[in-house]
Amino acid sequence: DSGVTQTPKHLITATGQRVTLRCSPRSGDLSVYWYQQSLDQGLQFLIQYYNGEERAKGNILERFSAQQFPDLHSELNLSSLELGDSALYFCASSVEPGAGEQYFGPGTRLTVT
Amino acid sequence: AQSVTQPDIHITVSEGASLELRCNYSYGATPYLFWYVQSPGQGLQLLLKYFSGDTLVQGIKGFEAEFKRSQSSFNLRKPSVHWSDAAEYFCALLGGGYQKVTFGTGTKLQVIP
User: Is beta strand A19-24 parallel, antiparallel or unpaired with respect to A5-7?
Assistant: First the structure.
């Protein structure tokens, strides 16, 4: 158990819909990262927050957005969903903003039908 | 630009045999390098990391990796594989001003009796 929690575990929704994925980092970690893992794209870094501020951006679509709240939990919002958005979404956390040593949550499996 | 290449998509080894998983990177400065393991249905777990100093680093579960700057490689090794090592292994590089982590495409390890 990494100490990072993600909800929900599974999510099934239809194209065009909007969903919110939630992540709580390990106690004491200020940085949160979001990743998408799919069969064709592999593990892709989406976005990083540190202490409430956006720190780094990866291959995140404009339809996707994220935020980190004062209590340090983070949410990833995915809108206008397409079939290709079906993937595992991981959240990770670290103490420092530039840390490669990240602790991953169990992931949210999103299926878009 | 930074990149990580794992040339082997899938590797099969016999239980008790030695293992080497390859990782090559491209980065213009001194990299921070990591190996993660992902068991089926799980998030990623950090096996080991290289920041500086001794180029041979020890990790958890009996794994080690050697950083070779001249070959831009960071190969993962284990002298004797156990059936429980069957998983997917990801090499990762921390770059982009130490803000951005890039993962390789992963190597799936199958262990046969």
Answer: antiparallel
